[in-house]
Amino acid sequence: MTDDEARHKAKMEKRKAVQDAEVASKTITEKGLLIVNTGPGKGKSTAAFGLIMRALGHGWRVGVVQFIKGAWSTGERKALERFDDLVSWKSMGEGFTWETQDRARDVAAAGRAWDAAKDMLADPGMRLVVLDELNIALRYDYLDLTEVVATLRARRPDLHVIVTGRNAKPEMIEAADLVTEMTLVKHHFAAGVKAQEGIEF
Q1: pLDDT digits (tens, 9 = 90+) for 100-109
Q2: Which terminus of the chain has a lower count of CB atoms within 10 Å, N or C?
Q3: Residue 86 pairs with which residues in a beta bridge?
Q4: Under DSSP, is residue 186 helix (H, G, I), strand (E, B) or coil?
Q5: What is the pLDDT of residues 39-98, one digit of tens each?
Q6: Cβ contacts of residue 158 below 8 Å, gap of 6+?
Q7: Can you tell me the distance from the alpha carbon of 27 to that of 133, in angstroms, rounded to the nearest whole number?
Q8: How far apart are CA 159 and CA 152, in angstroms?
Q9: Rounded CA gap, 174 and 191, in Å?
């Protein structure tokens, strides 16, 4: 063994000891998480759908409620329809707010979506529920923030929930177990590239 290899081996042994001690210090083996994907960068919903694929690999039942993007035919929806025995999908939105231009209509659509979300949250067979773009509905005050956060806090202990959308409210962030902020470094849209099938939808 060379000196460099020996140094590397010793360094990794120390690193493993630290890592093992860190893992051993954690005592909670299972807990339903409230996960929030927010921020101005691309990938919030994409990350949630990736976690759905992981859950399906373990045979979990999964629910999805889309609060805004309901009018789009997306690749993720088409793919997950193949798991119709495990996935319940509700596209309840009518498009982005600048498309509908009708606040009363948007508030009504968000209310219907929240009712569908509460049904999924109450379903004892669900293991994971994705509330896609819920943060947008809350940002525009289409739903009562206090009620939404209280309902999510009161979910059963083994239920995982993912909330997506930029501009997550501080109350949502405070209630969450895991918050990831997608930061925008560079986006092809700024260079004139429109949304593409298979990439954006």
Answers
A1: 678 888 999 9
A2: N
A3: none
A4: coil
A5: 999 999 999 999 999 999 999 999 999 998 766 678 999 999 999 999 999 998 766 555
A6: 30, 31, 32, 127
A7: 33
A8: 10
A9: 36
The number of CA neighbours under 13 Å toward the Cβ of 201 is 10
Decide if 48 contacts 132 (C-beta within 8 A). Answer: yes
**Residue pLDDT, tens place only, 109-122:** 999 999 999 999 99
The answer to whether the predicted template modeling score (pTM) of the entire model surpasses 0.85 is yes
Structure tokens at 71: 């009018």
| Eight-class DSSP state of 150 | H
Cα distances (angstroms) measured from residue 36 to each of 1, 20, 82, 89, 100: 47, 28, 26, 19, 26
| Three state DSSP letters for 20-47 | HHHHHCCCCCCCCCEEEEECCCCCHHHH
